[in-house]
Specification:
Its cofactor is Zn(2+). The chain has 6 helices and 19 strands. The protein has 329 residues and is α+β, with helices and mostly antiparallel strands. The structure holds zinc ion.
Length: 329
């Protein structure tokens, strides 16, 4: 397997429920022959499609790890036909630190693909997923949220793809996930993303943004738990009817969806998530933090739509994403 140093402590292709670790040797000051132990569960029953389910691609996003730990504990081989590979915390060192990127190498997992078997810890994990796990999967679900610095309306999303048949399969799986919103998402910069690796391997892919602020809510966790089961049913792996309610279809057609700050300061939200916004309306103001008697700077929507994402912490820096406006289809 391409010289990657990671080994699995459980079989990836045996019937039953197996809970274990991907063990990545990591020699360091406090453990000369130590390892990073990345939790993994594989549940398999006979012949059928395989799903790869991942969370904590960014370490400070929690709906994925919660829904996947819950699934790993509750799903039994007898409930499925095929295989479910569950990796609740892809960037496990980041997950343990509660940070977006890895404390070991500052690696941003979603900018580290396709990875390298001889690279940093983050690159080795990416390479193992790229070369060992991904080729096994027919459908892939990767959970995201806003992390500590962004907050989102809850949506599942697919990307615009050159292969329209693959795109249709991804959109159908997004609809099956059935978050309150479904999005055709535009990426700011897709180089190195897991998403791109998955899509380049021709897989059906669903990603999400379910909340943010470095935590999760009862509502966002319920959306994640329902969504993952719906996707497994949609893929024909899990038995039973999909649990469906209304979902609003959204689009992010171009760069005009994004509003970036040009200033450091204190952010005052003028719109809340899910609110309608008219082009030219103020979505946020940025106040100077160091004096009184100066007006705030206004940040305006560059298109009409609904507020899909916002900067989360109270302080903002130049270059931060202040707001994302999505368009109802
Ligand atoms: Zn993320």
């Amino acid at each position: 397997m391409s010289g990657n140093p990671i080994t699995s402590t459980i079989p990836l292709d045996e019937d039953g429920e197996h809970h274990g670790f991907l063990r990545l040797p990591y020699s360091r000051d406090d453990s000369a022959w130590g390892s990073v132990m990345i939790p993994i569960t594989v549940i398999k029953n006979g012949v059928g499609p395989s799903a790869l389910l991942t969370g904590a691609n960014h370490g400070d996003e929690y709906e994925g790890p919660i829904a996947l730990m819950d699934l790993a504990m509750s799903l039994k081989a007898g409930d499925i036909e095929g295989r479910v590979i569950i990796l609740p915390a892809m960037n496990y060192p980041a997950f343990r630190a509660g940070t977006r990127t890895s404390p070991i190498d500052r690696g941003n997992m979603n900018r580290s693909f396709p990875g390298s078997p001889s690279g940093t810890v983050t690159e080795k994990i990416a390479d193992y997923i790229q070369t060992v796990l991904l080729p096994e999967a027919s459908i892939v679900l990767d959970f995201h949220s806003g992390g500590r610095t962004l907050d989102f309306i809850p949506f599942a999303s697919a990307h615009v793809l050159e292969n329209k048949e693959q795109q249709a399969a991804c959109v159908a799986a997004v609809e099956a996930f059935n978050a309150p919103y479904s999005m055709i998402m535009l990426e700011i910069d897709n180089v190195g993303m897991y998403d791109t690796s998955v899509e380049d391997q021709g897989k059906t892919f669903v990603t999400t943004e379910l909340g943010g602020g470095g935590t999760s809510t009862a509502r966002s966790n319920a959306i994640a738990k329902k969504g993952v089961r719906n996707v497994l049913k949609h893929a024909g792996i899990m038995k039973g009817e999909l649990d469906l309610s209304a979902s609003v279809m959204l689009d992010m057609p171009d760069d005009d969806c994004f509003v970036f700050s040009h200033d450091d300061g204190m952010i005052e939200a003028m719109k809340d998530l899910g609110e309608e916004v008219e082009k030219g309306e103020i979505v946020a103001r940025v106040w100077p933090v160091d004096r009184t008697g100066r007006p705030p700077l206004d940040y305006r929507a560059r298109r009409s739509g609904i507020l899909a994402s916002r900067h989360f912490p109270g302080l903002v820096k130049a270059g931060d994403c202040v707001a994302v406006i999505a368009v109802k289809v």
